[in-house]
Design goal:
The chain contains 10 helices and 8 strands. It has 270 residues and is of the alpha/beta class. Strand 4, helix 5 and strand 5 form a beta-alpha-beta unit. The protein starts with a strand and ends in a 6-residue tail after the last helix.
């Protein structure tokens, strides 16, 4: 892919059924869609198949940059670690079945020893190669373990694996207190995907949660500066609309997806 293109993270229209989300993303003009393992599991449990999900994606011309997410890989020990890896294998298999390039690897909620982060992430990458899916490291601004760009990038570097990459996200950059200058730590080709969203001015950013995210341009985040720095790093890939806003979940999902596309077009090349 030679230019920035727009993607819809299905968390933005979470109440809709999986197949409806895929249909809506195609109608709204997105070129890609980020799916969640829980949605894929629910679809199968309700009698559907991943084969029909893949067919629906192909019918809409949608790529799948990521599936979300792998948990427990960083902080678990002993038998719990093997259980976490077994579940991650299942999620990698799901990601492969729908043609995803990456499975997002989420950090621990609580503070933990990060000295083994690189080795743990490398273990995931080796596991992912069995399925043809590359786990992508994620920092989360509100957790106690990996909450800054610098911490996430250190784990990527410590993994010393050519498939290692990082997820970038304005909300988590600002929520976790990363200096914007730290965007320059990460070469564009090492970014798996840029999530895109804004922060409201209604409460201190350090007190915000996922539910506070707003549509790009509706908040007070320095999105134009973040865009400039991302492009300066040579990023070429998908930019994905990712919100968890309950107010948006109450609206018509097709309307939200179309509005999100309009808001996204104020950024990057489209």
């Amino acid at each position: 892919m030679s230019a920035i293109q727009y993607c819809l993270n299905t968390s933005t229209i979470r109440p809709a059924a999986l197949m409806e989300k895929i249909h809506i993303a195609g109608l709204a003009g997105y070129r890609a869609i980020e799916l969640w393992n829980d949605d894929l599991s629910a679809h199968v449990q309700q009698g559907g198949s991943l084969t029909e999900v893949r067919r629906a994606l192909d019918d809409q011309g949608l790529q799948v940059p990521t599936v979300i997410a792998a948990f427990g890989w960083l902080e678990s020990t002993g038998p719990a670690h093997q259980l976490a890896l077994d579940e991650i294998k299942r999620r990698l298999e799901q990601a492969a079945a729908v043609g995803a390039r990456h499975l997002i690897a989420s950090p621990a909620m609580e503070a933990c020893d990060l000295s083994q982060g690189g080795a743990r992430y490398r273990e995931l990458l080796e596991l992912g190669r069995q399925f043809g899916v590359k786990p992508a490291m994620e920092y989360l601004g509100f957790v106690g373990s990996v909450y800054t760009i610098a911490q996430g990038w250190q784990i990527v570097q410590d993994a010393a694996d050519p498939d290692a990459s990082l997820i970038m996200d304005p909300f988590h950059i600002l929520r976790g207190g990363s200096p914007l200058a730290d965007i320059a730590l990460v070469p564009g080709e090492k970014v798996a995907i840029w999530h895109w969203n804004d922060i409201p001015g209604t409460k201190p950013v350090g007190q915000q949660s996922d539910a506070d995210r707003v549509l790009p341009g509706d908040g007070v985040g320095p999105l134009k500066e973040i865009e400039r720095l991302a492009l300066q790093q040579g990023y070429q890939g998908f930019v994905s609309l990712e919100l968890f806003n309950p107010t948006l979940w109450q609206r018509d999902p097709e309307e939200v997806a179309r509005l999100g596309m309009e808001k996204m077009k104020a950024y990057f090349s489209g």
